[in-house]
Design a protein that fits this description.
2 copies of one chain form a homodimer. With 629 residues, chain A is of the alpha+beta class. Chain A is built from 16 helices and 29 strands. In chain A, α4 packs across α6.
Chain lengths: 629, 629
C-alpha cells in the first residue's frame, strides 16, 4: 500500500474552517469526485481497508458521539470485528464466532490499545472503516447515477500546503480556535478528531505542539494505519526555519526500561505489562522477583537514589516533609510484610470470551506474592507530624512515572487503612530480600496489603493526606466495577466506588487448559492459588473434576505461620491429587475458594462481566484430556 | 394406635445387661417370635411405622455409629423420608420427589428437632425405623423358612419390673456402670441408646436422674413416638416411697416466654424461633421490634433489672468487675448503632430443597435491622481496667439463658473486633428507641455489627476476655461452614473457622415466589434487601427478570447517611420497577448484590450446600406468573 496515496485529497484551510462551521455545499468539480471514487475503488479492491477517510471525515458531521458508538459496536458485535492483515499492515472487518478465533495479532493489538490510559486513536480508525463500508455503497450508488451526489463537505485538493510557524501552531489549542498538532514537518488540524479519540480528552495535551512525545509514550500509535489516519487531517507544513529546528530529538521514553526475563508473557511492551507462566506461580509461595507480574502504566523512571526525595504533605500535617532514602532506611524501623498483589484485570481474558472488554488481555497470572521490606506508612505519617481530627479521609500517592504532560501516575487509599495498626501499609524498599527492582518501583513503592495492585503505587514520589480521593484517571475513571448491563454509552464512573479491597479469588495453575494428561501414576494432581482481599484468609478451596457437580477439598499450603485475624495478606497455594475418574477421557476441572468471611466465588463469568473487564473472579475452569491407554 | 402395644416385649435386667455385653444367643421361644412378627406385621399394615424397636435395638449391635448412619441416610436419601401421619401421631417412611412435597407436619418436626442443641432423640427413632424395613424383610424371610432365624439378642418379656430407689438410679451415670434415667415412675437403662442420641452426649446430663426437666427444655421430645422409644428401655420401677416424692414438679420452662405477634411464622415454638412475613422487611428500614426475627436457643430468662449484674473478668483485667444496669446506663455514654442482624441459617430452606440439612427451616426473613442503644463494649472493658499485651484474643459472652444442666448459651468474638475504634460493638439496652424486649435479650445484649447473629448474645450475663474462643457448643460445633462434600460421617468441626463476619447477601421480598401478578399498571415492582458482613457496604443490586440472562440495576434505599468506610452495618433496601416483558407469562426474577469489596453472591445453591445449611447466600430467585389479560 502506498502510504502517500492515503493522505487523501487536500483542501485549503479556509475550506476546512467553513466545513467545521457546518456549511454544506456541492462538490465543485466532477472529475475530482470521479478520481476520488476511483481511488476508493482501487484501494478497496487491493485490500478492502483504509480508504475514503477524508470523505468519511466530512460525512460524519456530528462526530463527537462516534467514540461511544465505536465502543458500543465493539462491545455489541462480537460477530464482526477488525482483523490485522499479517502481510499488509492493514485492518479489515471479518466475521467470526463470538470472537473466540480472534487473530492473535489482533489480540496483541487490543492488548496494546488498552495499555497506558487504555484507549487509542486506532479505535476511531476501526470505527471509520466500519462506517466506510456503508458510505462506499452510497458513493457507488451515486456514481452509478452519474455522480450527482451532494456531499455535505468538499474533498477538493488545492495544490501545495500553506506554511505555518510553530508559533502559529501553538495558537490552536482549543476547539474554538481549532486543535492543531505537528508530526515531523507537517501541520494537522485534528479539531474534528478530538471527539473521536478513543483515548478521550488526553489528546488535548498535544494541542498546539508536536505529537512525537506522546506517541513515544503510547507506542501503540506507531503504526501505519494511524499515520494514514493522521494524513487526512494535514492542513499545512512547517516553515523552513522550524523544519530545521525540528520538534526536538524524541528519544524512546521506554529506552531505559530494565531488561526482563524472556519467560514472561508480554501483554504490552510499552508500557511494559507481562505475566509469568502460571505454573511458576504455584511452585513458589514467594514469587521470584523476575517472575512477579509486571504492570506498568508508563515508562519506568530512572531514579538516582542519592537525589531521591519522598515528599509528604496535606491535611493534618503541620508542614510538608521531605525524606531521603537514607532517612527512610535509618530513621524508621524496618518491617517486613508478605503480601500478594493482584491486578484488577487478572483473568480478564475470561471476560473477553463472553464479550469484548477494554484492557490488557491478562490470563490468570496477573497476581504474585512477595515479602516486602520497608517502613510503615503510619510511622512515616506520625513522624511527619500527622494529627487526627481534620477533614482527612484519604492518602494519595503520586508516582515518579509521568506522562509527557508531566502528569504522574496516581492513586489513593482510605486514611483508615493507612493509619490502622493492622493495616500493614508499607513504603517498601525491598522485595524478597533484594533491593526493590526497577520494574517494581525502585527506590520506593507503596505496598497496601489486601488492596488492588493499582493502589500500590510504584516509584513513590509524593504522599498527600487529603479529604479527597486522588483525582487521577486511575482512581476516578478506571478500576471500578459495574453491572453487566452497563456499557460505554451508559457508564457513570461516579456511580461506583474505586476498587480497594479485592474479592475472593482462586485459579488452577496446573494442569493448563487443553493439556493432554498421561494416565500413568493413576493420579491427577491439580494445583493453584487462592487469595482474598482485605486480609481475609482463605480457609478452603473446593476442586471439582466433573465440571462442578461434585467437589473435593484441596490441601492448602502457606509459606508462613497462621496470620492474625484480618491480616492474611498472602495467598495460599493449594493442591489436590485425585484418582483419574473411571470413565470418560476428558476432565472438567473447576476450583472455587472460600475466605474466613465465608465469601465465595461466583459460579460463572457472564453475570459479573463488566465493560472494563475487572474483578474477574468466577470459578476457574480448565478442560483437559486424558491420553488413551 | 395402641401405645401400650408399642412398648415391645419386655426383658429382664439381667438379660439386658448380658445383651449389652455382646452375648448373642438364640431366641428361646418360637411362639414369642411369631407373636413378635405378627405384632410387627400388624403395625406395618396399619401404619407401617414404629414397631420392632426392641428387636432392632438388640440387632443393631455396635450401635454407637448409628447416629452418623442415620444422619447420612437422611442426607443421602431425599427420595425416602419419614412422614408424620396426621391422624395417628406416628411416623412412616414414604417415597417422594426430592423431598419437595414434605408433609408440613414433618417439616415442623424437623424444625423442632434442630432447635436448641439442634438434635433430638427422634432422629434415632427414624433411623431405627429405616433399618427396621430391612430387618422386617429378614424376619419375614426367616419366618417363611420356619422361624429358624438366629437372633443376636433375645426379646422375651419376664413379668413384673424390679423396684429401684432414686438413690440406686443415681449410681448409674456412666457407660461402665450403665446409664439410667427415670421418667414418671419408671426406670430406664438407656446405656445402649447413648450412642444413638442425635443430640449427642448431652443426653449424659440426664444420667442417674429424671428426664422431665430436659424434655421440658427441649420440647420436641414430648411426642408419642419418643415415649414409645423410651418404653423399650424400661428396666424397673421406682420404689413406692420415691413414687410418692415424685421427680419434683416440672413446670414448663417456656411458660414465662413473652407473648409474640401472631403474624410471625413460627419455625419452632420451644425454644421460640420465628420470622416475619418477608414483605414487612422491605417496608421498614428499621424492622419494628415485634417483627424482628426471633432466634432463641433456650427459654427466655426472667431477669429482674434491679438484681441484674453484668460480670466482667478474664485476661488483661486486674480483677473481676460487676456492673448493675444502672451503672451501665449512667457511668458510660450512650451510643446508638443501626445494625442488621442475620441468622447463619437464613434462607436455609433453599438448601433443604437441594438436599436435607439439619436446622430450622428458615425462609428469607431470618434477618432484620434495628437501631440499638447502649454502651460501647470497648469502653466497658477499659472501665474494667483491661490492658493490652497479654494472651487475650477473644471476648466470650455468656447468656443468662441456661439449659437444665445450668450451661448458658455462649459465644465469642475476636478481641480485635471488640476493641476496635470502628467495630461499634455495643452492650445494648435499647432497641429502636424502646427498652430491649425480652425476646431480644432484656435487659442487656451484645450487638456485634457485621457479625452473624449467633455472636450477638442476648440476656448477657458474663463477659470473659480470654486467649480462647468460647468453648460452647455453638462456637465449637455449630455455626461453621463446610464443603458440599462433607457429611456427618466426615465432618471435622475443628477444620473450619467459627462464622463471624457474614458474606454478601440479598433476597427478593416482593413479589413472593409463586405469586400471580396483575398486568395492570404496565410495571412490575420488585423489592428486597441486601446486606454484607464486616461493615462492607452494599454498592449495587442487580435484578434479572429473565432468570439471570440480563440484568438491571436496582435503586438502593438507606435510612441513614452514608456510613464511614468499613462501618456499613445496616442493610440497604432496594427496588426495581420494570415494564412487564412483552412475551411470556412467567417471570424468573433473580437478585444478586455486590459489596464495596466487590464480593458477589454465588449463582447457585448446590455448590455452597453444607450439612448445617448455613451461609445460604446464592442468588435469590422467585418465579411468578403474569395474569392473562
Amino acid at each position: 500500500m502506498r502510504s502517500s496515496e492515503l493522505r487523501g485529497p487536500e483542501i485549503s484551510r479556509a475550506e476546512k474552517r467553513s466545513a467545521r462551521q457546518g456549511q454544506a455545499y456541492k462538490i465543485q468539480t466532477f472529475p475530482i469526485v470521479a478520481s476520488f471514487l476511483n481511488d476508493i475503488a482501487e484501494r478497496k479492491s487491493s485490500n478492502g481497508t483504509v480508504a475514503g477517510m477524508l470523505f468519511l471525515k466530512h460525512a460524519l458531521g456530528p462526530a463527537r458521539r462516534c467514540l461511544y458508538r465505536t465502543q458500543r459496536l465493539l462491545v455489541r458485535t462480537p460477530l464482526f470485528y477488525p482483523q490485522v492483515c499479517a502481510d499488509k499492515g492493514c485492518v479489515r472487518w471479518q466475521s467470526g464466532e463470538g470472537g473466540r478465533d480472534w487473530n492473535p495479532r489482533w489480540q496483541h493489538m487490543v492488548a496494546g490499545l488498552a495499555a497506558g490510559t487504555g484507549m487509542v486513536l486506532a479505535f476511531g480508525l476501526y470505527h471509520r472503516q466500519e462506517e466506510q463500508a456503508a458510505s462506499e455503497e452510497q458513493l457507488a450508488d451515486s456514481a452509478g447515477r452519474g455522480g450527482e451526489a451532494v456531499f455535505p463537505e468538499t474533498a477538493a485538493p488545492v495544490g501545495a500546503y500553506p506554511i505555518f510557524t510553530r508559533e502559529e501552531v501553538t495558537k490552536h489549542r482549543t476547539l474554538q480556535d481549532g486543535v492543531w498538532v505537528t508530526f515531523g514537518d507537517s501541520v494537522y488540524d485534528i479539531t474534528d478528531f478530538v471527539g473521536l479519540h478513543p483515548g478521550g480528552s488526553k489528546i488535548m495535551l498535544a494541542a498546539g505542539g508536536a505529537l512525537e512525545p506522546f506517541w513515544a509514550m503510547y507506542a501503540v500509535h506507531n503504526q501505519q494505519h494511524v499515520l494514514e489516519l493522521l494524513g487526512e487531517y494535514k492542513v499545512g507544513e512547517l516553515s523552513s526555519e522550524d523544519k530545521k529546528k525540528g520538534s526536538g530529538a524524541i528519544s524512546d521514553p521506554y529506552a531505559s526500561d530494565p531488561p526482563r526475563h524472556p519467560a514472561l508473557k508480554i501483554n504490552s511492551l510499552k508500557p511494559f505489562n507481562a505475566e509469568p507462566p502460571s505454573e511458576i506461580l504455584s511452585e513458589n509461595f514467594l514469587t521470584p522477583n523476575a517472575f512477579f507480574f509486571k504492570r506498568n502504566h508508563l515508562p519506568v523512571p530512572e531514579v538516582d537514589p542519592e537525589r531521591y526525595r519522598l515528599e509528604i504533605s496535606g491535611e493534618g500535617l503541620p508542614k510538608a516533609v521531605s525524606l531521603t532514602l537514607e532517612d527512610l532506611k535509618t530513621k524508621f524501623p524496618k518491617h517486613t510484610v508478605t503480601a500478594t498483589l493482584q491486578c484488577a484485570g487478572n483473568r480478564r481474558s475470561e471476560m473477553n470470551k463472553i464479550k469484548q472488554v477494554k484492557g490488557l488481555d491478562w490470563g490468570i497470572a496477573a497476581i504474585s506474592n512477595a515479602q516486602w521490606g520497608g517502613v510503615r506508612l503510619r510511622e512515616v505519617l506520625e513522624h511527619a507530624g500527622y494529627r487526627h481530627g481534620g477533614a482527612a479521609q484519604h492518602v494519595q500517592f503520586e508516582g515518579l512515572d509521568k506522562d509527557v504532560s508531566g502528569t504522574p501516575y496516581g492513586a489513593s487509599i482510605p486514611l483508615r487503612k493507612a493509619l490502622s495498626d493492622d493495616g500493614d501499609v508499607l513504603l517498601a524498599y525491598e522485595m524478597n530480600g533484594e533491593e526493590l527492582p526497577r520494574d517494581h518501583g525502585f527506590p520506593l513503592r507503596a505496598v497496601v496489603p489486601g488492596t488492588v495492585g493499582a493502589r500500590n503505587v510504584k516509584w513513590l514520589g509524593k504522599i498527600i493526606v487529603s479529604a479527597e480521593e486522588s483525582k487521577s484517571h486511575w482512581q476516578q475513571n478506571d478500576y471500578k466495577g459495574f453491572s453487566p448491563s452497563v456499557d460505554w454509552d451508559t457508564v457513570d464512573f461516579k456511580s461506583a466506588p474505586a476498587i480497594q479491597e479485592l474479592p475472593i479469588q482462586s485459579a488452577i495453575t496446573e494442569p493448563r487448559d487443553g493439556a493432554l494428561l498421561e494416565r500413568s501414576g493413576e493420579q491427577v494432581t491439580v494445583r493453584g492459588y487462592a487469595w482474598s482481599g482485605g486480609g481475609r484468609e482463605v480457609v478452603r478451596v473446593d476442586v471439582s473434576l466433573d465440571g462442578g457437580k461434585t467437589w473435593q477439598v484441596a490441601t492448602l499450603r502457606s509459606g508462613e505461620d497462621a496470620p492474625p485475624l484480618g491480616q492474611a495478606w498472602a495467598w495460599k497455594l493449594w493442591e489436590l491429587s485425585a484418582p483419574f475418574p473411571p470413565e470418560g477421557e476428558q476432565l472438567d476441572i473447576v476450583c472455587k475458594a472460600v475466605d474466613n468471611s465465608y465469601n465465595m466465588q461466583p459460579d460463572s463469568v457472564a453475570p459479573i462481566w463488566n465493560l472494563r473487564g475487572v474483578l474477574s473472579n468466577a470459578w476457574h475452569r480448565v478442560r483437559v484430556s486424558v491420553k488413551k491407554d
